[in-house]
Amino acid sequence: MLSDLEIARGARPRPIAEVAALLGIPREALRLYGDHIAKVLPAALPPAAGPRARYVLVTAVTPTPLGEGKTTTAVGLAQALHRLGHRAAVTLRQPSLGPTFGIKGGAAGGGHSQVIPMEDLNLHLTGDFHAVTAANNLAAALVDSHLFHGNALGLDPDDIPWRRVLDVNDRPLREVTIGLGRRTDGIPRRTGFEITAASEVMAILALASDLADLRRRLGRAVVAYTSGGRPVTADEVGAGGAMAVLMKDALAPNLLQTLEGTPALIHAGPFANIAHGSSSILADLVGLRGADYVVTEAGFGADVGAEKFFNIKCRVSGLRPDAAVVVTTVRAMKAQTGKHRIVPGKPIPDALGTEDPGEVLAGADNLRRHLAIVRRHGVTPVVAINHFPTDHPSEHAAIGAVCDDLGVAWAVCDPHAGGGAGVVDLARRVEEACAAPSAFRHLYADEMPLRAKIEAIATEVYGAGAVSFEASAADALHRFEALGWGSLPVCMAKTHLSLTHDPAVRGAPTGWTLPIKRVRASIGAGFVLAMAGEIRTMPGLGSHPAAHGIDLDAGGNIVGLS
């Protein structure tokens, strides 16, 4: 069987200007990066013609550590809609180098439902991640320079939330002490690193509507607090303008294509478990102006990525989704019984391949909860049963019976082996779902207190019975509201491996207590970040990361990338 990389290399991609033309994007609105990649310059686009495209979110049940093929399904769905005669586009986040060289691998899709060029997408692409890293770290450097040169603003060295970032998994950098050495080497203080995808600058890139909005958001980002508790912005330390200069080109979405030539807009890359987990608003708007259907994706399950898509991204953009595809697999349902131990980087347990529709039904409460999350936001769900070679028809039928009981449309799909042709049945169900009027609604109102917003997410989305707040987190929430930030939405940082804060808990439990350990204000992005349980903003590498198998062959070709 060919690897994803071999399949991608066997493709014959269209010139990127032809792909752009499918969305009505003229050549003058493109900045080319070779023959098959371009940045789309939104300011150079002509006015949209015709009605707005249908807007389809792809989310999932609680995934196993190996993932359930959500990106592959999103790419395959866009290809299938194109096969049905629609102008379709898929909008996705850019992969982070951390997971690419860690355990998860890249995020270009898989098999015959990939975005190409696969190597460029999974590696540096057009340099957007490096721009985010540089802009973030410039602000950090200017904060420390201000401390060194007299600290005229009265910054509190122990209350500087702005950390440096790096696009690798590197656990020793989570907590560091800087400024050690001679007096001229800076003011010693404790700080740390986060992965670039967790940077507030990345969230700002994903949520900015244009260059002026980008500049405003960067400038108002809170980088420090004074000894009296006053927030200090990037503009106050002289960073906002220079950050915007570094980010100017990164603001333009990247245009690539799928294996079947369907337009793919790749832009921004905030993680869903430690940020808001969606590609950029600008990429969606570029797709919506020229397509009939835009398929986008939110990270991990509906409790994590979809909730933030509905309550943060859609709140900022004003867009209303027409339908949501919830991806599930037989193995994900069986995993929710708690009977199997699935370890990243190790083979799937053989028992998951044993035919057992009863075990599928035993894990189905997790699917029910994720469907309820989508419906709670007034969006019509469609279930995609992503086929794996170890599945059995009786197990697909068991998932289908659960959907039938709930009145939810479903289809078995095989985007990996079948490409767009393997997803046509799902595409027809999506067409039907989009034909119904949208009743989309947010989970909470802007004017609700921050604590009440957190409690609404915990109880109505996760199924918790209560929320506990560490004293420091409760104090910070009061402080944020006193500073006028109470109307902001909440971005929950939580494990993606469970509906709870504990990655070991399976199923869809109720009545438990969600612990909020810390909260942070991301004023540039425009949300308050609440940390549920133990959540790390800098991942670590496993004992056998993907980096061990990535190399160059004798001809200079990349090998081992997945």
Strands, helices and their partners?
Blueprint: H1 4-9, H2 16-21, E1 30-32, E2 38-40, E3 54-60, H3 70-83, E4 88-92, H4 97-101, E5 109-110, E6 113-116, H5 118-122, H6 128-148, E7 164-166, E8 176-178, E9 189-191, E10 193-195, H7 200-207, H8 211-220, E11 222-225, E12 231-233, H9 240-247, E13 254-258, E14 263-266, H10 281-290, E15 293-297, H11 302-317, E16 323-328, H12 330-335, H13 357-362, H14 365-376, E17 381-386, H15 393-406, E18 409-413, H16 415-418, H17 424-435, H18 450-462, E19 466-469, H19 471-482, E20 490-493, E21 513-522, E22 527-532, E23 551-552, E24 558-559
Parallel strand pairs: 3-15, 3-16, 4-14, 4-15, 7-10, 16-17, 17-18, 19-21, 20-22
Antiparallel strand pairs: 1-2, 2-13, 5-6, 6-13, 8-9, 11-12, 13-14, 21-22, 23-24
Report on this structure.
The chain has three domains: 4-126 and 252-435, P-loop containing nucleotide triphosphate hydrolases (Rossmann fold, 3-Layer(aba) Sandwich); 128-249, Domain 2, N(10)-formyltetrahydrofolate synthetase (2-Layer Sandwich), CATH 3.30.1510.10; 450-532, Formyltetrahydrofolate synthetase, domain 3 (Roll). Helices cover 33% and strands 18% of the residues. By secondary structure, it is of the alpha/beta class. Strands 1, 2, 3, 4, 5, 6, 13, 14, 15, 16, 17 and 18 form a twelve-stranded mixed sheet that branches. A four-stranded mixed sheet has the order 19-21-22-20.
